[in-house]
Amino acid sequence: xxxxxxxxxxxxxxxxxxxxxxxxxxxxxxxxxxxxxxxxxxxxxxxxxxxxxxxxxxxxxxxxxxxxxxxxxxxxxxxxxxxxxxxxxxxxxxxxxxxxxxxxxxxxxxxxxxxxxxxxxxxxxxxxxxxxxxxxxxxxxxxxxxxxxxxxxxxxxxxxxxxxxxxxxxxxxxxxxxxxxxxxxx
Length: 186
Known about the structure:
The chain has 186 residues and is an alpha/beta fold. It has seven helices and six strands; from the N terminus they run αβαββααββαβαα. The chain has a six-stranded mixed β-sheet with strand order 2-3-1-4-5-6, with helices on both faces. Mean pLDDT is 79; it is low at 1-7 and 156-186.
């Protein structure tokens, strides 16, 4: 472990399936590639990547809490426009470490109100601060990278607070979410 690695510490990311945890880790770690489904807890660079099922099923909460013992901070992740938030209120109280929130897939939101709606469950869970970002467009990544003590990822970062242009290829789960742009119809 280098001095920079020790300074940054480990961050565990917790969130539902398809929230964008693995893609975010790849982006912040400057690693290209397609994100594959995380089937088990995986240590990637300075991150601990957790399967979405661990937050989606209460019987796995203990596994999350034990796994978080290896981390210096906890990131709760929620996809923008997600109708189901699996992160319970006051969940941050389960950890004796800093807990912050990340709203992902902000590039899919039609309006800022969709971002605000996604921030609220993270705030109720006890996350502070809460970052709104898009690993695809680069929006908000510089702020999160600075918070984590990482170099800012490359990408076309856009100013925070502005909806992003349409044109991104979107998956079925993204299109099904209320208030989100479709692939070519945005």
